[in-house]
Amino acid sequence: MSTPARIEPGPNASLDSVVIRFAGDSGDGMQLIGNQFTRTTALAGNDLATFPDFPAEIRAPAGTRAGVSGFQLQFANHDIFTPGDIADVLVAMNPAALVANLNRLKDGGLIIVNTDSFGKRDLKLANLEVSPLDDGTLDEYRVVQVGITKLTKETVEPLGLTTKEADRCKNFFALGMTYWLYSRNMEPTKQWVTGKFKGKFAEANIAALQAGWSFADTVEIFGGQPYMVPRADDFKEGEYRNIMGNAAMAVGLAAAANKADRLLFYGTYPITPASDILHALAPFKNYGVVTYQAEDEIAAVCASIGASWGGSIGVTGTSGPGVSLKAEAMGLANIIEVPLIVVNVQRGGPSTGLPTKTEQSDLMQALYGRNGDSPMPVLAPQTPADCFDVAVEAVRIAIKYMTPVMILSDGYIANGAEPWLLPDLDALPEMKPNFAKAEEGVEFQPYSRDEETLARPWAIPGTPGLEHRIGGLEKQHLTGHVSYDPANHQFMQELRQEKVRRIQADIPETEVFGDEGGVCVLGWGSTYGAIRTAVVGAREAGVKVGHVHLRWINPLPKDLGEVLKRFDKVLIPELNLGQLIKLIRAEYLIDAVPLAKVQGQPFQTNEIRDRIIEFSKEA
Amino acid sequence: MTAAPTYKKKDFMSDQVVRWCPGCGDYSILSQVQTTFAGLGVLRENFAVISGIGCSSRFPYYMETYGFHTIHGRAPTFASGLKATRPDLSVWVISGDGDMLSIGGNHIIHALRRNFDINVLLFNNQIYGLTKGQYSPTSEVGKKTKSTPYGSIDEPFNPITLALGAGGTFIARSLDVHAKHLQSMLVASHDHKGTGLVEIYQNCNIFNDGAFDTFRGKAEREENALFLENGQPMIFGKTTKMGLVLDHTTMKVVEIGDEYGEEDCVVHDEGNFIQAQLLAQLKAPDFPVPLGIIYRCERPTYEQSFQDQVSEARAKLGNGVLAELVKGGDTWRVEG
Lengths: 619, 336
Ligand code: SF4
What we know:
- The complex is a heterodimer of chains A (619) and B (336).
- Chain A is built from 20 helices and 21 strands.
- With 619 residues, chain A is an alpha/beta fold.
- Chain A has three domains: 216 residues, Pyruvate-ferredoxin Oxidoreductase, domain 3; 260 residues, Rossmann fold (3-Layer(aba) Sandwich); 105 residues, Rossmann fold (3-Layer(aba) Sandwich), CATH 3.40.50.920.
- Chain B starts with 25 loop residues before the first helix and ends with a strand.
- Chain B has a domain of 203 residues: Thiamin diphosphate (ThDP)-binding fold, Pyr/PP domains (Rossmann fold), CATH 3.40.50.
- An eight-stranded mixed sheet of chain B has the order 2-1-3-4-6-5-11-7, with helices on both faces. Chain B has a three-stranded antiparallel sheet with strand order 8-9-10.
- The chains are: A alpha/beta (619), B alpha/beta (336).
């Protein structure tokens, strides 16, 4: 066991924030302990943000670099926006996890490593000739070597588990050590284990957790007292929970449908990273939610449209490849003008791309990826918890304007988590579907319009006297009959466009964080946290910079062009090769500059901060 | 539920001009559907007619009901979402052989296995009409069309076999021009609790005229069609009375007379799956063409099971309170 060299925690040393990264084989239960650490930390009142980094392959050979699963968490005594660029602590369960994650650990950072998995075979699986524990690779770090596997086995031996079962408890031993290190309360995890596992296996996991904690305490592996990260005081008063983006999306959709007093129909086909929305919604049957796992992506969206036609809130969730398949049906929803929500949890593309990695490269697809001019409102959540608000907003707009709406989430916020102040449900916006009813002596016009919103009436089957036909062929204004009249087609196309534009009146004006004038950093969606942190950092470094973040991308806020023109220059960071920037240039003739990243990973805050500082100095 | 008023056929005729080619078999089908709807005892506003793309898929425009002309091949999926959430509606899917068996092949098999209580009318004219005459997935091998100048080389689908394989619970076949028979099949499909698939041989007089001539006209069908009646022996033919007998595991055509009597013929049993498969294989000219209900069985409908799960959840967990949903599991309070 190496002796701690540089960082000597004093008695109850207090830290403002910590970034911890758990890494191991995908079978080692890293996501599980990451989530437990998160939950405990949330209950301790810290602000936090998480980033699960899943392996690309579900069943990559155990012990290989391809099979490494990571979970990063930042927690703090103040408001934070990201899971942190780089870790203070790395828990590495095997050589592959260690070497694959070293570049995500800060210089001098702490490594807790399971030495029991550094045999010849383990090294070979990780493509290593010599052990990084011996060859000087780790000289710059503070390394705590623990035989986690063996210690766990000894701990659980009296319970008479099989070797395999005993081995599966080692993640809890590691978790116990980190709980000691950051003075976390073990009770919530113990309770969770009791609820989750049965009998001896539950006992064994609790024993391993306790043993890890005690080992850190009595053997003083960390060479001092544990750290404290005091609770964050800038939280608003209220009740909180920890929530992941996909879960927040599910709850938001259900809450919105409930508010509108409509059944929520979620038609979908399993796809990474969107499936967790289905998993979250499927048990909500007593909340007026039904889920439908269709035979394919097309059937999923079409069934949802069918449900919407019948008066439900039809929602379909998917990722980029699924959106490609749904394109024709979305065009149909556009021309028949019924509410529909399409949730795209974006991932790396093109084609199958990087299913488990994050990207923002479906923006153009959302805006234009259908045949014909087919305008569709598009909005994007900014943080995991924001998925709730965005889902509610999407449903509100879909009902009010009788239109399909696209939500662009992504893998980063879908799987990331943060504390969420539970919303005041009474304060949710009004959602009143305007169902048409027959009027004596008036012929029903299925394509008549609301003067303000241009929405057409929602006339659902079963309503006496409103029998009418809809479909994908061009509609005659008012009557909705099939029409090939050239002037009518132009009129209807412009009308559908205008209807989406009118949503501008219904969405907030642009907010600027920081300075006006100087540099504007313009972002959309999940890059919010990284940009906000970077802008704060750049301002601290003396740069005059402001942050504008778009939630609505179609339509754009009414005043956006005017706001952007108040700045000297505009930088647009995006996790794609430059998509929003094309729109901004085209709309406002502003010579914005891109900051494009497509590595399947979110922005690091320093990447953006450094670029802002550099950019501010460029002529 | 309000009792349906007494409707007339014209109550189901919309004000739109019917635009099929003169002489197309679709006219007769439209007429039979309108007549049938008038007599089903269903309120007019409770009919939803959903189609895909193709000649037949113009159908909803001509029906004075709720109608939805959707996209190519996908009609069953819209019907699924609608029926799952609105079991009170009488849902009718209108599709053709190209729409349903080519681009929409995936959806019809899944609709059948799920067994929504919907009605699916498959207008089988064995050709693509709307796109002007290419071979379809039910066209015979060797068919010469614009897209197959040397003859088609694809083995056609047998829609009945396909539906049996997909777990269909009501599978019938009828003819566009046989008004009485078609109407009776439509009624039977409506009465069936589950997906009713009615394959309707429909003549496309422009691109595939005469495809069914050997058994379509009155005289021809009296000779060459086998009208199935549950519990009745399989007898056909007017000039010579013929029957079907079982020869080991296949059907054999025999003349009713000295050697074979009616009592030797196979008795139609709608619930017999194996027999239905044998019937599905019978093709002209060696065999009579079976018309009627080829197979029928009972199985819970999808929407019933769907609703049952909701009711069970509500009975067990009570009506969900939104505040609880939002809370999820653990929460903590921050005091001001
Ligand atoms: S092309 Fe054939 S199927 Fe189509 S309307 Fe004309 S006759 Fe009928």
